[in-house]
Amino acid sequence: MKELLMGNEAVACGALAAGVQVVAGYPGTPSTEALETVAKRRPEGVYVEWSINEKAGAEVAAGAAYAGARSMVTMKQMGLNVASDPVMCVNYVGVKGGMVIYVADDPGPISSQTEQDTRSWGQFAKIPVLDCTSPEQAFEQVQYAFELSEAKGMPVILRSTTRVCHACAVVDVPEFVSPKPVEGFVKDPKWVIFPGLSYQNKKKIFKRESELAKLFSENGKNPVTGSGKTGIACGGISAAYVADAIRGHEDQFTVFNVTAPYPFPVQAAKAFLDQVDKVLVFEELDPYIEDHLAAMGADVIGKRSGDVPEAGELSAVKVAGMISAKTGIALDLKAADLPEAPALPVRPPVLCAGCPHRGAFYAVKKAMKGRKFIALGDIGCYTLGNAMPLDMVDTCLCMGAGVTMAQGLNHVDPSTVNFAFIGDSTFFASGITGAVNGVYNQADIVLAILDNSTTAMTGHQPHPGTGVTMMGERVKPVSIEAVLRGAGVTSVRTVDPLNLGEAVSAIQAAADEKGVRALIFKSPCIAIVPKEKTAKVDQDACIGCRRCISELGCPAITMIETADGKKADIDPALCTGCGLCNQICPKHCMEVIR
Hints:
- The protein is of the alpha/beta class.
- The protein has 19 helices and 22 strands.
Protein backbone atom coordinates (compact mmCIF):
# COMPACT_ATOMS: atom_id res chain seq x y z
CA MET A 1 0.00 0.00 0.00
CA LYS A 2 1.32 3.44 -0.93
CA GLU A 3 2.02 5.63 2.11
CA LEU A 4 3.51 9.05 2.69
CA LEU A 5 6.61 8.36 4.78
CA MET A 6 9.27 10.48 6.39
CA GLY A 7 12.83 9.38 5.57
CA ASN A 8 13.34 7.86 9.01
CA GLU A 9 10.00 6.06 8.72
CA ALA A 10 11.09 4.74 5.34
CA VAL A 11 14.25 3.30 6.91
CA ALA A 12 12.14 1.60 9.59
CA CYS A 13 9.61 0.22 7.10
CA GLY A 14 12.41 -0.97 4.81
CA ALA A 15 14.00 -2.80 7.74
CA LEU A 16 10.68 -4.44 8.68
CA ALA A 17 10.11 -5.39 5.04
CA ALA A 18 13.56 -6.99 5.09
CA GLY A 19 12.61 -9.13 8.10
CA VAL A 20 14.57 -7.33 10.83
CA GLN A 21 14.11 -9.10 14.16
CA VAL A 22 15.99 -6.95 16.71
CA VAL A 23 16.30 -3.14 16.66
CA ALA A 24 18.16 -1.16 19.32
CA GLY A 25 19.30 2.45 19.49
CA TYR A 26 19.64 5.67 21.42
CA PRO A 27 17.54 8.76 20.62
CA GLY A 28 19.28 11.61 18.85
CA THR A 29 18.10 14.11 16.25
CA PRO A 30 17.89 13.55 13.29
CA SER A 31 17.67 9.76 13.63
CA THR A 32 15.08 9.25 16.40
CA GLU A 33 11.95 8.45 14.39
CA ALA A 34 13.49 5.37 12.78
CA LEU A 35 13.41 3.27 15.96
CA GLU A 36 10.11 4.80 17.10
CA THR A 37 8.51 3.73 13.81
CA VAL A 38 9.76 0.17 14.21
CA ALA A 39 8.23 0.12 17.70
CA LYS A 40 4.84 1.33 16.39
CA ARG A 41 4.62 -0.88 13.33
CA ARG A 42 6.47 -4.06 14.26
CA PRO A 43 4.76 -7.39 13.65
CA GLU A 44 4.84 -10.19 16.23
CA GLY A 45 8.36 -11.42 16.88
CA VAL A 46 10.23 -8.15 16.42
CA TYR A 47 12.05 -6.86 19.52
CA VAL A 48 12.86 -3.16 19.88
CA GLU A 49 14.52 -1.17 22.65
CA TRP A 50 15.94 2.19 23.57
CA SER A 51 19.33 1.11 24.87
CA ILE A 52 21.03 3.19 27.55
CA ASN A 53 23.53 4.44 24.96
CA GLU A 54 24.72 3.70 21.44
CA LYS A 55 27.47 1.32 22.57
CA ALA A 56 24.93 -0.85 24.37
CA GLY A 57 22.61 -0.70 21.36
CA ALA A 58 25.35 -1.79 18.95
CA GLU A 59 26.25 -4.71 21.20
CA VAL A 60 22.61 -5.83 21.48
CA ALA A 61 22.35 -5.76 17.68
CA ALA A 62 25.64 -7.63 17.30
CA GLY A 63 24.47 -10.37 19.69
CA ALA A 64 21.29 -10.87 17.69
CA ALA A 65 23.26 -10.97 14.44
CA TYR A 66 25.61 -13.61 15.91
CA ALA A 67 22.51 -15.78 16.42
CA GLY A 68 21.54 -15.37 12.77
CA ALA A 69 18.83 -12.72 13.13
CA ARG A 70 18.70 -9.55 11.08
CA SER A 71 19.36 -6.63 13.41
CA MET A 72 19.65 -2.86 13.24
CA VAL A 73 21.04 -0.22 15.58
CA THR A 74 20.09 3.45 15.13
CA MET A 75 21.87 6.64 16.19
CA LYS A 76 22.96 10.11 15.13
CA GLN A 77 26.48 10.84 14.01
CA MET A 78 27.75 11.78 17.48
CA GLY A 79 26.44 8.48 18.79
CA LEU A 80 28.63 6.62 16.32
CA ASN A 81 31.60 7.79 18.38
CA VAL A 82 30.06 6.22 21.49
CA ALA A 83 29.37 2.99 19.58
CA SER A 84 32.75 2.91 17.88
CA ASP A 85 34.32 0.38 20.26
CA PRO A 86 31.95 -2.52 19.47
CA VAL A 87 31.35 -1.42 15.87
CA MET A 88 35.06 -1.44 15.01
CA CYS A 89 35.41 -4.88 16.57
CA VAL A 90 32.31 -6.48 15.05
CA ASN A 91 33.70 -5.60 11.64
CA TYR A 92 36.71 -7.78 12.42
CA VAL A 93 34.67 -10.63 13.91
CA GLY A 94 31.85 -10.56 11.35
CA VAL A 95 28.16 -11.43 11.63
CA LYS A 96 25.85 -14.27 10.64
CA GLY A 97 22.52 -12.46 10.37
CA GLY A 98 22.49 -9.13 8.55
CA MET A 99 23.47 -6.18 10.78
CA VAL A 100 22.70 -2.62 9.68
CA ILE A 101 24.06 0.42 11.49
CA TYR A 102 21.75 3.33 10.68
CA VAL A 103 23.47 6.68 11.26
CA ALA A 104 21.89 10.08 10.58
CA ASP A 105 24.35 12.92 9.95
CA ASP A 106 23.53 16.51 10.82
CA PRO A 107 24.98 19.10 8.41
CA GLY A 108 24.72 22.54 9.85
CA PRO A 109 25.04 21.29 12.51
CA ILE A 110 21.39 21.95 13.41
CA SER A 111 21.11 19.95 16.63
CA SER A 112 24.58 18.60 17.32
CA GLN A 113 27.89 19.68 18.80
CA THR A 114 29.81 19.14 15.57
CA GLU A 115 29.52 18.25 11.91
CA GLN A 116 30.74 14.71 11.30
CA ASP A 117 30.64 12.69 8.10
CA THR A 118 29.81 9.01 8.49
CA ARG A 119 31.19 8.27 5.03
CA SER A 120 34.65 9.21 6.31
CA TRP A 121 34.02 7.25 9.54
CA GLY A 122 33.05 4.18 7.49
CA GLN A 123 36.25 4.45 5.49
CA PHE A 124 38.22 4.71 8.74
CA ALA A 125 36.45 1.62 10.14
CA LYS A 126 36.52 -0.19 6.77
CA ILE A 127 32.78 -0.83 6.93
CA PRO A 128 30.74 -0.41 3.71
CA VAL A 129 28.59 2.72 3.60
CA LEU A 130 25.37 3.26 1.65
CA ASP A 131 24.10 6.83 1.32
CA CYS A 132 20.45 7.88 0.96
CA THR A 133 19.31 10.53 -1.52
CA SER A 134 15.59 10.37 -0.72
CA PRO A 135 13.05 8.56 1.49
CA GLU A 136 12.19 6.23 -1.42
CA GLN A 137 15.83 5.30 -1.81
CA ALA A 138 16.24 4.90 1.96
CA PHE A 139 13.44 2.30 1.90
CA GLU A 140 15.29 0.36 -0.80
CA GLN A 141 18.83 0.89 0.50
CA VAL A 142 18.15 -0.56 3.94
CA GLN A 143 16.88 -3.78 2.34
CA TYR A 144 19.96 -3.96 0.13
CA ALA A 145 22.12 -3.28 3.21
CA PHE A 146 20.73 -6.41 4.93
CA GLU A 147 21.33 -8.52 1.81
CA LEU A 148 24.89 -7.23 1.44
CA SER A 149 25.62 -7.72 5.14
CA GLU A 150 24.56 -11.34 5.07
CA ALA A 151 26.23 -12.07 1.74
CA LYS A 152 29.60 -10.81 2.98
CA GLY A 153 29.23 -11.58 6.71
CA MET A 154 29.93 -7.99 7.78
CA PRO A 155 28.02 -5.03 9.25
CA VAL A 156 26.86 -2.36 6.78
CA ILE A 157 26.35 1.33 7.55
CA LEU A 158 23.29 3.07 6.14
CA ARG A 159 23.91 6.80 6.26
CA SER A 160 21.38 9.57 5.91
CA THR A 161 21.32 13.32 6.55
CA THR A 162 18.81 15.67 8.16
CA ARG A 163 16.90 16.67 5.02
CA VAL A 164 16.43 13.06 3.94
CA CYS A 165 15.51 11.97 7.48
CA HIS A 166 12.72 14.53 7.71
CA ALA A 167 11.58 14.85 4.09
CA CYS A 168 8.47 12.93 3.02
CA ALA A 169 7.74 10.85 -0.06
CA VAL A 170 5.25 8.23 -1.20
CA VAL A 171 6.57 4.70 -0.70
CA ASP A 172 4.91 1.41 -1.62
CA VAL A 173 4.96 -0.39 1.74
CA PRO A 174 4.20 -4.12 1.92
CA GLU A 175 2.36 -5.82 4.74
CA PHE A 176 4.88 -6.70 7.41
CA VAL A 177 5.13 -10.31 8.52
CA SER A 178 6.88 -11.88 11.48
CA PRO A 179 10.56 -12.60 10.88
CA LYS A 180 11.60 -16.14 10.05
CA PRO A 181 12.96 -18.37 12.85
CA VAL A 182 16.75 -18.29 13.06
CA GLU A 183 19.25 -21.02 13.79
CA GLY A 184 20.42 -19.44 17.03
CA PHE A 185 23.93 -18.97 18.33
CA VAL A 186 26.34 -21.74 17.40
CA LYS A 187 29.54 -21.94 19.40
CA ASP A 188 32.62 -21.32 17.26
CA PRO A 189 36.08 -19.88 18.02
CA LYS A 190 35.48 -17.28 15.30
CA TRP A 191 33.25 -15.29 17.67
CA VAL A 192 36.14 -14.64 20.08
CA ILE A 193 38.27 -11.69 19.02
CA PHE A 194 41.78 -12.92 19.81
CA PRO A 195 44.74 -11.04 18.27
CA GLY A 196 45.65 -13.91 15.93
CA LEU A 197 42.12 -14.00 14.52
CA SER A 198 42.07 -10.21 14.09
CA TYR A 199 45.36 -10.39 12.19
CA GLN A 200 43.91 -12.90 9.75
CA ASN A 201 40.60 -11.07 9.43
CA LYS A 202 42.35 -7.77 8.71
CA LYS A 203 43.71 -9.39 5.52
CA LYS A 204 40.18 -10.47 4.59
CA ILE A 205 38.85 -6.96 5.19
CA PHE A 206 41.47 -5.51 2.85
CA LYS A 207 40.61 -8.06 0.17
CA ARG A 208 36.92 -7.39 0.67
CA GLU A 209 37.49 -3.66 0.20
CA SER A 210 38.67 -4.18 -3.38
CA GLU A 211 35.88 -6.63 -4.13
CA LEU A 212 33.22 -4.22 -2.86
CA ALA A 213 34.68 -1.28 -4.77
CA LYS A 214 34.34 -3.35 -7.95
CA LEU A 215 30.83 -4.47 -6.97
CA PHE A 216 29.73 -0.88 -6.31
CA SER A 217 31.00 0.12 -9.75
CA GLU A 218 29.07 -2.61 -11.49
CA ASN A 219 25.80 -3.08 -9.63
CA GLY A 220 24.18 0.25 -10.50
CA LYS A 221 24.43 1.70 -6.98
CA ASN A 222 26.59 4.57 -8.26
CA PRO A 223 24.97 5.49 -11.58
CA VAL A 224 26.51 7.77 -14.20
CA THR A 225 23.76 9.46 -16.23
CA GLY A 226 23.70 12.02 -19.06
CA SER A 227 26.18 12.81 -21.81
CA GLY A 228 27.17 16.45 -21.29
CA LYS A 229 30.82 17.44 -21.09
CA THR A 230 30.31 19.17 -17.75
CA GLY A 231 30.48 16.58 -15.00
CA ILE A 232 28.78 16.81 -11.62
CA ALA A 233 29.61 14.34 -8.88
CA CYS A 234 27.31 14.28 -5.87
CA GLY A 235 25.82 12.06 -3.19
CA GLY A 236 23.06 11.94 -0.59
CA ILE A 237 20.67 14.87 -0.48
CA SER A 238 23.05 16.88 -2.69
CA ALA A 239 22.10 14.60 -5.59
CA ALA A 240 18.48 15.70 -5.16
CA TYR A 241 19.59 19.34 -5.12
CA VAL A 242 21.58 18.80 -8.33
CA ALA A 243 18.59 17.15 -10.02
CA ASP A 244 16.42 20.17 -9.18
CA ALA A 245 19.10 22.65 -10.19
CA ILE A 246 19.72 21.25 -13.69
CA ARG A 247 16.10 20.32 -14.49
CA GLY A 248 15.42 21.15 -18.15
CA HIS A 249 19.14 21.29 -18.92
CA GLU A 250 20.11 17.67 -18.22
CA ASP A 251 21.59 17.21 -21.70
CA GLN A 252 24.44 19.56 -20.84
CA PHE A 253 25.65 17.53 -17.86
CA THR A 254 26.89 14.11 -16.89
CA VAL A 255 25.96 13.28 -13.30
CA PHE A 256 27.76 10.75 -11.09
CA ASN A 257 25.47 9.94 -8.14
CA VAL A 258 27.51 8.19 -5.44
CA THR A 259 25.00 6.30 -3.27
CA ALA A 260 27.50 3.64 -2.16
CA PRO A 261 30.49 5.84 -1.26
CA TYR A 262 32.68 3.36 0.62
CA PRO A 263 34.55 1.45 -0.69
CA PHE A 264 34.82 4.14 -3.33
CA PRO A 265 33.64 2.88 -6.75
CA VAL A 266 36.85 3.66 -8.64
CA GLN A 267 35.87 2.04 -11.92
CA ALA A 268 32.57 3.92 -12.10
CA ALA A 269 34.40 7.13 -11.20
CA LYS A 270 36.93 6.55 -13.99
CA ALA A 271 34.13 6.04 -16.52
CA PHE A 272 32.60 9.30 -15.34
CA LEU A 273 35.88 11.26 -15.57
CA ASP A 274 36.61 9.88 -19.05
CA GLN A 275 33.30 11.30 -20.24
CA VAL A 276 33.65 14.92 -19.09
CA ASP A 277 35.90 17.96 -19.51
CA LYS A 278 35.10 19.68 -16.23
CA VAL A 279 34.15 18.30 -12.80
CA LEU A 280 32.06 19.97 -10.11
CA VAL A 281 31.39 18.19 -6.82
CA PHE A 282 28.45 18.93 -4.54
CA GLU A 283 28.30 17.18 -1.17
CA GLU A 284 27.64 18.19 2.42
CA LEU A 285 30.07 17.69 5.31
CA ASP A 286 33.44 16.26 4.22
CA PRO A 287 34.91 16.63 0.70
CA TYR A 288 34.73 12.84 0.52
CA ILE A 289 33.87 12.34 -3.16
CA GLU A 290 36.00 15.33 -4.10
CA ASP A 291 39.13 13.92 -2.45
CA HIS A 292 38.69 10.53 -4.11
CA LEU A 293 38.29 12.10 -7.55
CA ALA A 294 41.27 14.39 -6.93
CA ALA A 295 43.35 11.37 -5.94
CA MET A 296 42.52 9.94 -9.38
CA GLY A 297 44.02 13.03 -10.99
CA ALA A 298 40.87 15.06 -11.62
CA ASP A 299 40.94 18.85 -11.43
CA VAL A 300 37.91 19.30 -9.18
CA ILE A 301 35.78 22.36 -8.45
CA GLY A 302 34.45 21.86 -4.95
CA LYS A 303 35.17 22.53 -1.29
CA ARG A 304 38.97 22.35 -1.64
CA SER A 305 38.94 24.96 -4.41
CA GLY A 306 36.81 27.28 -2.28
CA ASP A 307 33.85 27.20 -4.67
CA VAL A 308 31.51 25.12 -2.47
CA PRO A 309 30.87 26.04 1.20
CA GLU A 310 33.03 23.91 3.48
CA ALA A 311 30.40 23.82 6.26
CA GLY A 312 26.63 23.83 6.60
CA GLU A 313 23.85 22.66 4.34
CA LEU A 314 23.47 23.10 0.58
CA SER A 315 20.19 23.72 -1.27
CA ALA A 316 18.98 23.43 -4.85
CA VAL A 317 19.17 27.21 -5.25
CA LYS A 318 22.73 27.36 -3.91
CA VAL A 319 23.79 24.50 -6.19
CA ALA A 320 22.18 26.15 -9.23
CA GLY A 321 23.98 29.39 -8.50
CA MET A 322 27.35 27.68 -8.19
CA ILE A 323 26.84 25.66 -11.40
CA SER A 324 25.93 28.81 -13.36
CA ALA A 325 28.87 30.72 -11.89
CA LYS A 326 31.43 28.04 -12.78
CA THR A 327 30.06 26.95 -16.18
CA GLY A 328 28.24 29.98 -17.59
CA ILE A 329 25.19 27.78 -18.20
CA ALA A 330 22.02 29.72 -17.39
CA LEU A 331 19.76 27.46 -15.32
CA ASP A 332 16.06 28.02 -14.71
CA LEU A 333 16.24 27.79 -10.91
CA LYS A 334 17.20 31.11 -9.36
CA ALA A 335 16.82 32.47 -5.86
CA ALA A 336 14.70 35.35 -7.11
CA ASP A 337 12.17 32.88 -8.57
CA LEU A 338 11.22 31.59 -5.15
CA PRO A 339 8.65 33.36 -2.97
CA GLU A 340 10.22 35.43 -0.25
CA ALA A 341 9.80 33.80 3.15
CA PRO A 342 8.22 35.96 5.83
CA ALA A 343 10.52 37.29 8.51
CA LEU A 344 10.58 35.00 11.51
CA PRO A 345 10.27 36.35 15.04
CA VAL A 346 13.52 36.49 16.99
CA ARG A 347 13.41 33.68 19.51
CA PRO A 348 16.62 33.13 21.44
CA PRO A 349 17.07 29.58 22.72
CA VAL A 350 15.60 29.42 26.20
CA LEU A 351 14.28 26.85 28.68
CA CYS A 352 10.50 26.36 28.46
CA ALA A 353 8.21 28.32 30.77
CA GLY A 354 7.84 26.22 33.91
CA CYS A 355 10.87 24.03 33.15
CA PRO A 356 12.14 22.66 36.48
CA HIS A 357 15.73 23.01 35.29
CA ARG A 358 15.33 26.79 35.63
CA GLY A 359 14.65 26.32 39.35
CA ALA A 360 17.69 24.07 39.79
CA PHE A 361 20.04 26.49 38.04
CA TYR A 362 18.64 29.48 39.88
CA ALA A 363 18.86 27.72 43.25
CA VAL A 364 22.54 26.84 42.71
CA LYS A 365 23.28 30.40 41.62
CA LYS A 366 21.54 31.79 44.70
CA ALA A 367 23.07 29.27 47.09
CA MET A 368 26.60 29.84 45.82
CA LYS A 369 26.45 33.63 45.72
CA GLY A 370 29.78 35.00 46.93
CA ARG A 371 31.53 31.62 46.57
CA LYS A 372 33.81 30.41 43.80
CA PHE A 373 32.11 27.76 41.70
CA ILE A 374 31.99 26.39 38.15
CA ALA A 375 28.83 25.04 36.43
CA LEU A 376 29.73 22.19 34.08
CA GLY A 377 26.95 21.42 31.64
CA ASP A 378 26.12 18.41 29.50
CA ILE A 379 24.03 17.40 26.48
CA GLY A 380 20.28 17.93 26.86
CA CYS A 381 17.63 20.62 27.36
CA TYR A 382 19.63 21.95 30.28
CA THR A 383 22.38 23.11 27.91
CA LEU A 384 20.00 26.05 27.46
CA GLY A 385 20.90 27.06 31.01
CA ASN A 386 23.81 28.88 29.40
CA ALA A 387 21.46 31.65 28.20
CA MET A 388 21.13 34.89 30.12
CA PRO A 389 20.02 35.65 32.71
CA LEU A 390 20.73 32.20 34.19
CA ASP A 391 24.22 31.97 32.62
CA MET A 392 24.81 28.66 34.37
CA VAL A 393 26.64 26.49 31.83
CA ASP A 394 30.37 27.21 31.80
CA THR A 395 31.38 24.13 29.78
CA CYS A 396 29.68 21.62 27.49
CA LEU A 397 31.64 19.00 25.55
CA CYS A 398 29.79 15.75 24.93
CA MET A 399 27.45 13.24 26.60
CA GLY A 400 28.54 12.61 30.17
CA ALA A 401 31.68 14.73 29.97
CA GLY A 402 30.54 17.27 32.56
CA VAL A 403 30.84 14.71 35.38
CA THR A 404 34.41 13.77 34.60
CA MET A 405 35.56 17.22 33.46
CA ALA A 406 34.49 18.50 36.88
CA GLN A 407 36.95 16.02 38.36
CA GLY A 408 39.75 17.28 36.13
CA LEU A 409 39.07 20.86 37.19
CA ASN A 410 38.97 19.81 40.82
CA HIS A 411 42.36 18.13 40.63
CA VAL A 412 43.85 21.39 39.33
CA ASP A 413 41.98 23.87 41.55
CA PRO A 414 40.61 22.30 44.76
CA SER A 415 39.45 25.70 46.01
CA THR A 416 36.57 25.84 43.52
CA VAL A 417 33.26 24.03 44.00
CA ASN A 418 32.52 22.21 40.76
CA PHE A 419 28.88 21.44 39.95
CA ALA A 420 28.40 18.78 37.25
CA PHE A 421 24.88 19.15 35.83
CA ILE A 422 23.53 16.12 33.99
CA GLY A 423 20.05 14.92 33.03
CA ASP A 424 18.50 11.64 34.14
CA SER A 425 18.61 10.02 30.69
CA THR A 426 22.18 11.20 30.12
CA PHE A 427 23.16 9.91 33.56
CA PHE A 428 22.11 6.41 32.50
CA ALA A 429 23.71 6.85 29.07
CA SER A 430 27.15 7.99 30.15
CA GLY A 431 27.10 9.63 33.57
CA ILE A 432 27.38 6.47 35.66
CA THR A 433 30.93 5.86 34.49
CA GLY A 434 31.98 9.35 35.58
CA ALA A 435 30.31 8.97 38.97
CA VAL A 436 32.17 5.71 39.65
CA ASN A 437 35.41 7.28 38.43
CA GLY A 438 34.93 10.17 40.84
CA VAL A 439 34.29 7.91 43.83
CA TYR A 440 37.21 5.64 43.01
CA ASN A 441 39.64 8.51 42.48
CA GLN A 442 38.38 10.53 45.46
CA ALA A 443 37.28 13.54 43.45
CA ASP A 444 35.63 16.50 45.14
CA ILE A 445 32.55 17.45 43.07
CA VAL A 446 28.83 18.10 43.40
CA LEU A 447 26.92 15.86 40.99
CA ALA A 448 23.70 17.73 40.16
CA ILE A 449 21.25 15.39 38.40
CA LEU A 450 18.35 17.19 36.71
CA ASP A 451 15.76 14.40 36.85
CA ASN A 452 12.68 15.33 34.80
CA SER A 453 11.64 11.69 34.30
CA THR A 454 12.14 11.57 30.54
CA THR A 455 14.54 12.07 27.65
CA ALA A 456 13.12 15.50 26.91
CA MET A 457 15.29 17.00 24.21
CA THR A 458 14.76 14.26 21.63
CA GLY A 459 11.03 13.80 22.13
CA HIS A 460 10.36 12.27 25.57
CA GLN A 461 11.60 8.75 25.06
CA PRO A 462 11.59 6.39 28.08
CA HIS A 463 14.80 5.42 29.90
CA PRO A 464 15.66 3.01 32.74
CA GLY A 465 14.40 5.46 35.36
CA THR A 466 10.91 5.84 33.87
CA GLY A 467 9.61 2.34 34.52
CA VAL A 468 8.42 1.63 30.99
CA THR A 469 10.20 0.10 27.98
CA MET A 470 9.98 1.04 24.31
CA MET A 471 7.63 -1.92 23.82
CA GLY A 472 5.29 -0.51 26.46
CA GLU A 473 6.09 -3.01 29.21
CA ARG A 474 5.91 -1.79 32.81
CA VAL A 475 9.15 -2.57 34.62
CA LYS A 476 10.70 -1.62 37.92
CA PRO A 477 12.34 1.80 37.52
CA VAL A 478 16.06 1.94 38.10
CA SER A 479 16.63 4.29 41.05
CA ILE A 480 19.32 6.91 40.41
CA GLU A 481 19.79 7.31 44.16
CA ALA A 482 20.29 3.55 44.61
CA VAL A 483 22.77 3.48 41.72
CA LEU A 484 24.75 6.31 43.28
CA ARG A 485 24.76 4.75 46.73
CA GLY A 486 25.76 1.43 45.21
CA ALA A 487 28.68 3.17 43.54
CA GLY A 488 29.81 4.56 46.87
CA VAL A 489 28.29 8.05 46.88
CA THR A 490 27.34 8.47 50.56
CA SER A 491 25.76 11.93 50.37
CA VAL A 492 22.66 11.95 48.14
CA ARG A 493 19.87 14.51 48.52
CA THR A 494 16.68 14.55 46.46
CA VAL A 495 14.96 17.93 46.30
CA ASP A 496 12.19 19.67 44.36
CA PRO A 497 13.85 22.38 42.24
CA LEU A 498 10.61 24.37 42.26
CA ASN A 499 10.80 24.66 46.06
CA LEU A 500 13.47 27.33 46.15
CA GLY A 501 14.06 27.40 49.90
CA GLU A 502 14.43 23.62 50.17
CA ALA A 503 16.73 23.47 47.14
CA VAL A 504 19.00 26.30 48.31
CA SER A 505 19.44 24.73 51.74
CA ALA A 506 20.32 21.35 50.24
CA ILE A 507 22.81 22.92 47.83
CA GLN A 508 24.58 24.86 50.55
CA ALA A 509 24.85 21.75 52.69
CA ALA A 510 26.25 19.74 49.78
CA ALA A 511 28.70 22.48 48.84
CA ASP A 512 30.17 22.38 52.34
CA GLU A 513 30.85 18.63 52.14
CA LYS A 514 33.77 16.87 50.49
CA GLY A 515 34.05 13.99 48.04
CA VAL A 516 31.47 13.06 45.43
CA ARG A 517 28.10 14.19 46.75
CA ALA A 518 24.91 14.21 44.73
CA LEU A 519 21.87 16.45 44.46
CA ILE A 520 18.92 14.99 42.55
CA PHE A 521 16.64 17.82 41.40
CA LYS A 522 13.49 15.82 40.76
CA SER A 523 10.47 17.36 39.01
CA PRO A 524 8.80 16.13 35.81
CA CYS A 525 9.21 17.83 32.44
CA ILE A 526 6.25 20.17 31.89
CA ALA A 527 5.57 18.48 28.56
CA ILE A 528 4.74 15.09 30.10
CA VAL A 529 2.27 16.19 32.80
CA PRO A 530 -1.19 17.71 32.25
CA LYS A 531 -1.30 21.46 32.70
CA GLU A 532 -3.48 22.18 35.72
CA LYS A 533 -2.26 25.53 36.99
CA THR A 534 -1.23 28.97 35.87
CA ALA A 535 -0.33 32.20 37.63
CA LYS A 536 -1.49 35.76 37.40
CA VAL A 537 0.04 39.02 38.56
CA ASP A 538 -1.62 41.28 41.15
CA GLN A 539 -0.65 44.42 39.30
CA ASP A 540 -1.75 46.64 42.19
CA ALA A 541 0.98 44.98 44.24
CA CYS A 542 3.61 44.75 41.46
CA ILE A 543 6.28 47.45 41.82
CA GLY A 544 7.69 46.91 38.32
CA CYS A 545 11.13 45.91 39.63
CA ARG A 546 11.57 43.34 36.78
CA ARG A 547 13.29 40.91 39.14
CA CYS A 548 11.14 38.04 37.86
CA ILE A 549 12.41 38.73 34.34
CA SER A 550 15.99 39.74 34.96
CA GLU A 551 16.77 36.78 37.26
CA LEU A 552 14.68 33.92 35.87
CA GLY A 553 14.24 34.68 32.17
CA CYS A 554 10.92 32.79 32.05
CA PRO A 555 9.38 33.33 28.58
CA ALA A 556 5.87 33.48 30.09
CA ILE A 557 6.61 36.77 31.88
CA THR A 558 6.66 40.14 30.12
CA MET A 559 6.30 43.79 31.12
CA ILE A 560 3.20 45.69 30.01
CA GLU A 561 2.28 49.36 30.18
CA THR A 562 -0.39 50.19 32.80
CA ALA A 563 -1.84 53.40 34.16
CA ASP A 564 0.70 53.11 37.02
CA GLY A 565 3.69 52.42 34.82
CA LYS A 566 5.19 49.16 33.57
CA LYS A 567 4.11 46.06 35.43
CA ALA A 568 4.83 42.35 35.10
CA ASP A 569 2.34 40.24 33.20
CA ILE A 570 2.04 36.48 32.70
CA ASP A 571 0.94 34.75 29.49
CA PRO A 572 -1.49 32.05 30.71
CA ALA A 573 -0.95 30.07 27.51
CA LEU A 574 2.71 29.54 28.43
CA CYS A 575 2.61 29.59 32.23
CA THR A 576 2.41 26.22 34.05
CA GLY A 577 1.96 27.68 37.52
CA CYS A 578 5.32 26.48 38.81
CA GLY A 579 5.32 29.40 41.26
CA LEU A 580 9.05 30.04 41.01
CA CYS A 581 8.49 33.68 40.04
CA ASN A 582 6.37 34.30 43.14
CA GLN A 583 9.12 32.90 45.34
CA ILE A 584 11.63 35.51 44.16
CA CYS A 585 9.18 38.41 43.85
CA PRO A 586 9.83 40.91 46.70
CA LYS A 587 6.07 41.54 46.93
CA HIS A 588 4.99 37.92 46.22
CA CYS A 589 2.42 39.32 43.83
CA MET A 590 2.17 36.25 41.52
CA GLU A 591 -0.77 34.09 42.56
CA VAL A 592 -0.91 30.49 41.37
CA ILE A 593 -4.45 29.52 40.36
CA ARG A 594 -6.09 26.36 38.96
